[in-house]
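Re: the multi-chain job from yesterday

Posting the exact lines I submitted so nobody has to dig through the queue logs.
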Amino acid sequence: MAAGVVGRRGFAEGGAMSGAPDADEPVHNAVPIPDLAPVDAALKSGDPAALKAAVKQFRPADLGRDLSRRPIEEDRAILDAIDDRRGAAMLRAAHPVVAAQLLGQVDAPRTCRLLAFLPTDHEVAILGAMSPDQRARIDSAYAPDEKATIDRLLAYPESAIGRIMTPKIWRCDRSSGESPLRAAARTAGDALDILRMNADDIEVAVNCYVCDGPKLVGVVPLRVLATSDRDTPLDQVMTPDPIAVREDTARSDAADIINTHDFLSLPVVDARGDLIGAVRVDDLLGAALDAAGTGILNQGAVSGKLAGRAPYFLTSLARTVRSRLTWLILLFVAETATGTVLRYFEDELAKVVALSFFVPLLIGTGGNAGSQTVSTVIRALALGDVRTRDVLRVVRREVTAGILLGLLLGVIAFFRALLWGVHSDLAMCVAVTILVVCTWANAVGATIPLAAQRLGIDPTVVSAPLITTLVDASGLFIYFSVAHLMVAGLH
Amino acid sequence: MAAGVVGRRGFAEGGAMSGAPDADEPVHNAVPIPDLAPVDAALKSGDPAALKAAVKQFRPADLGRDLSRRPIEEDRAILDAIDDRRGAAMLRAAHPVVAAQLLGQVDAPRTCRLLAFLPTDHEVAILGAMSPDQRARIDSAYAPDEKATIDRLLAYPESAIGRIMTPKIWRCDRSSGESPLRAAARTAGDALDILRMNADDIEVAVNCYVCDGPKLVGVVPLRVLATSDRDTPLDQVMTPDPIAVREDTARSDAADIINTHDFLSLPVVDARGDLIGAVRVDDLLGAALDAAGTGILNQGAVSGKLAGRAPYFLTSLARTVRSRLTWLILLFVAETATGTVLRYFEDELAKVVALSFFVPLLIGTGGNAGSQTVSTVIRALALGDVRTRDVLRVVRREVTAGILLGLLLGVIAFFRALLWGVHSDLAMCVAVTILVVCTWANAVGATIPLAAQRLGIDPTVVSAPLITTLVDASGLFIYFSVAHLMVAGLH
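And the result, structure tokens for all chains:
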């Protein structure tokens, strides 16, 4: 019963549960993050035996999830207290960057033993996060063909499906396979035999891929094979000419396909169309969660490439600063345009000081309206609701929304300004500016993400940071131009 | 070969491919969005036979993905041109709101036939998007126990796992089942027989759930059962006491568990601990992509609840405006605090007009720094790298980063200000303000998401919109306070 009780025991001993758990009533409700207090206590005590006992109480995956929050010495102590199989399961649940850092503390033989327990995609992710030195230390432990496979997978860009696929798939050759590696299989029973005999070498077994030589010709779900008569010919139960993706397909596209078609795994082919592997939906789920995290960073003008990968506490301060500085300087320089506009209207500002009261309010509102539009369009693009060729439809829609929002907000602004005791002509000027700025911000906000997408740039990277800055300077120009027309004493 | 060729044919006829495809060389590279030009042409021609022929060329899922971009009349025509089974597959790939709208155009008998082809979770999603009238029209077609199941699932909040689970799972009762509904099963062969005989009533078959009466006691992957001897006792191959989630668990927590432990399905239990269903990882992938979309909206200060669900072009303008207006007004009112600060320093502004040149620049930079911190912390929270109790560590880290970024940016700001020809004391004042504002913005940006999380509020909802507004007014106050101390003529 060792494998299963952990979530429960962790809770009971951690005391994080409200109300004492009844020992007779098994609590089947797993929690995302069990309380690891016993591990903390054992680490503090410095007693290896106590740590071993504490670590044993938890699922390796729960330990793995927690590694990124600890100093590396504690991670090391935990890894020392755990056997290879459970240690590998722990590393599998940890962020690859954490796992790589931790393995840097361990000697080469143990590193290799731990990696050998991991499925290919996790192994590749961890190797990809290692420094060249670190990799060189363990490279010699790999057999030449294993090394060739790993190197091939590592050569893909990180956003490509090749990076998270596994070549260890369940493959049945329908033809009388010339290659000694591929058994010729014609019936459901043959296919199941292949799966049974190659249990350790097949990492994706939800679907059986039927081939003619190297070419993928069909797919049969395990479920169908498991419930068919052993004599059923594969041709009769397989879906012919299945959807497959090329190795260089973006993860997000693969996630899109798998989500649209409700697949459990997706075959991967190379440029010649030869079947080379598959990706499982749960690995895409991880990738999708990761991508969402990068999207969040991008929207906040943090360069995802530099800081996006390592967990929060393991990113060095220098790296954190670097990942933010570029955008911050860029936006700062762009934002100096507002100063240029204000200097241009220096006389007006000197004549009517009250004009400056509304500057942050107006550009802030413009920025907010623009951000709303940008977010809406980015989401619609991500979900496939909008394509780049819909640009005119989108701009028309957003401009209409901007006019409506601007009218409503303009009325509020007018009365708010009067309450501050400014002249009605200035209040009117503020109201009109709000209307124009909201419309303008929505038009710009609709255009930027679509333009970025068309240019092949990730819309989340450029849109959110750019929109505010763009709208700020142009909003001020609109404001003072309206003021010129409407405010007495400025004509 | 009909099912598989579609992606390829769609491309070839749409002509979107670079270089003509070679007819002899099958292209196995599916594309996320095939070109549906033949369908567009057939719709324009108004010829039902042509439309039927065009629709037949494409995978139903690809047609479904495209429905949200078309007017409802075209969707209706496409549904009329497709048979029930393919129509259901099309609806399955469409957004539930779109599917519900479209079914509103179809008579009740056909609606029921189409829904009957759908797996439970998709059926529930579509029914949940229907108006009460629309549901009433088809309710009578359901058998009472079916209706009870659907009503039960629909009663869950939309973020709960109960909403996307299916009760149609592969369940084997280890005890001599008293209930006539559940077969008693003790061996691998028995379990596979249950799967075979109930093929139509089992929607999740990647794992077999072993029960003692209503209680879940173990789980065996299909893969293990399919490759075991028929006589193998289930007790011998099952993982005992598996991780399960309660029906009211949040989807995001379930995604977290499934991602950590690399499961293909997760059993769902009710409050008493009785097994009531399961959720598949591919449904969680859809939910995760959806949640990422809502996060994007939230960060842009669009209320996800109102507009988040419907696809872009199917959201009415009134709904769009409503989903944005609340935040826009709220932020506008909060932002008026900047006007109060500026009015308070009216004399200073009148004396040194150049002070106002830097207002947008300073508050913009503060907002950008704050957004960067907010995004970083939200991502770290989402990935589990940071917990709420880490608040002090996070604030310390972010403040340090703020000081470093502020120093670097302050130097740039100093020289930029001198270039504009302002006095060195004002330039110095701007530089110092940048340093203080960056530090302050980072401190606030680190605190808000963690505080929101602790209070049980989704950090993406409040953080991004709030941070800029909070930093704007306080940033101005800092600016003028520093100016008071440093700028000649203001003492």
